[in-house]
Amino acid sequence: xxxxxxxxxxxxVAADGPRGTLRRLRIASSYxxxxxxxxxxxxxxxxxxxxxxxxxxxxxxAWFEVDAAAETVARTTAGRWxxxxxxxxxxxxxxxxxxxxxxxxxxxxxxxxxxARDEVSGGDDRWGPSARFTILLPRPLRKFxxxxxxxxxxxxxxxxxxxxxxxxxxxxxxxxLAVTTWGAAKxxxxxxxxxxxxxxxxxxxxxxGGGP
Length: 212
Known about the structure:
It is a single chain. By secondary structure, this protein is mostly beta strands. It folds into two domains: about 10-90, Elongation Factor Tu (Ef-tu), domain 3, CATH 2.40.30; about 110-205, Elongation Factor Tu (Ef-tu), domain 3 (Beta Barrel). It contains three helices and twelve strands; from the N terminus they run βββββαββββββαβα. Strand 3 and strand 4 (about 50-55) form a beta hairpin. The chain is globular and about 45 Å long.
């Protein structure tokens, strides 16, 4: 379980496969190598992946390897990650951690597309402008997106600003742009979308009529 608050920007340094149903990826990060246990869950730009190997980097920080299974490759952008691809990283929650974003499972529902990026000045640009992104989502997921609701995009917990048919907007402040891959995001980019769990279960209850 995650919160959607990014703790590092990693980079793919090696990508194998696919070999059978798996694609092995090696990711460099600034995490302490001794803190990454084999079997640990790490959210990598959305999908929750399991560290299958890890070690220290000569220049500092750590590398870890993950296997992206066929379902992950089919539902996320992981099949297109190559050496040089930057990823939003988040370690799994520990008991007692602050829940600063919203509950994120790391189970990506679909790939969405950035339709537009608009710079937004807040009148005081000492920290740079904010950016509003218009996102196109697959039509079957429209019912799960609500104004002022939560959504995870590339692993980042964001608040939905507005909704119109099969598009919605989110606003990212300068800090978020600086500490995630969103600073370089542009129209045409694809992002991993995870709908809010509460929205998922509310829609399912409505679908079955609230009873057996």
